[in-house]
């Protein structure tokens, strides 16, 4: 059993394709809740920011190495950051280990098999899943300079991620909005309802 399952706190995971607005939501939550929330960053961004080279989309061996690194970093973050934030009233994760299914070319089922991921165990780590829908192609982009997916690749990842997470009992889909700020406000309002339950 994961130590996260033993927590009485709400554990919310944000998922969705690159440029869906997760990082912007995390920044907003930090400004609203301060040390009342434990924010767990995206493992891939942690790695890329530290100099880990992005894999080439056509090289499965490189993608495998990258995903292996993500899984290990994710598990470490899931343990250390909640432990170091004892005042937090709830936790928000920028992706979970299951998100790798959206970026593994052979597909979600093969990802679970290749990386020994137990979907049920991953589901139990989180009380709620907020799936952020991609914006329109015109609004695609964002502020994350570590992003290396184009719109079509992100659209494919979105489909795979929804397939991976939609079976979670706490799954909610956050639809695209005309502006990023409207989506941020919508997610923040949804989280406010979750933590007040």
Topology:
Blueprint: E1 10-16, H1 22-33, E2 37-40, H2 43-49, H3 60-83, E3 90-94, H4 108-114, H5 119-125, E4 128-132, H6 151-165, E5 171-174, H7 180-195
Parallel strand pairs: 1-3, 1-4, 2-3, 4-5
Helix pairs in contact: 1-7, 2-3
Helix content: 40-55%
Number of E-type strands? 5
Order of helices and strands: EHEHHEHHEHEH
Question: What general form does the structure show?
Answer: globular
Strand order of the largest sheet: 2-3-1-4-5
Content-based structural category: alpha/beta
Residue runs with pLDDT of under 50 for 5 or more positions = none
Compute the CA-based radius of gyration.
16 Å
Q: Sketch the major β-sheet.
A: 5 strands, parallel
Number of helices: 7
Q: What proportion of the residues form beta strands (DSSP E)?
A: 5-15%
- Mean pLDDT over the full residue set: 90
Oligomer: single chain
How far apart are the termini?
Answer: 25 Å
Could you explain how this protein is built, in words?
With about 200 residues, the chain is α/β, with parallel strands linked by helices. The protein is built from seven helices and five strands; from the N terminus they run E-H-E-H-H-E-H-H-E-H-E-H. The protein has helices at about 20-35, 45-50, 60-85, 110-115, 120-125, 150-165, 180-195, and strands at about 10-15, 35-40, 90-95, 130, 170-175. Strands 2-3-1-4-5 form a five-stranded parallel sheet, with helices on both faces. Helix 1 (about 20-35) crosses helix 7 (about 180-195) and helix 2 packs across helix 3. The longest helix has 24 residues, at about 60-85. The two termini are about 25 Å apart. The relative contact order is 0.22. The model has no long low-confidence stretch (mean pLDDT about 90).
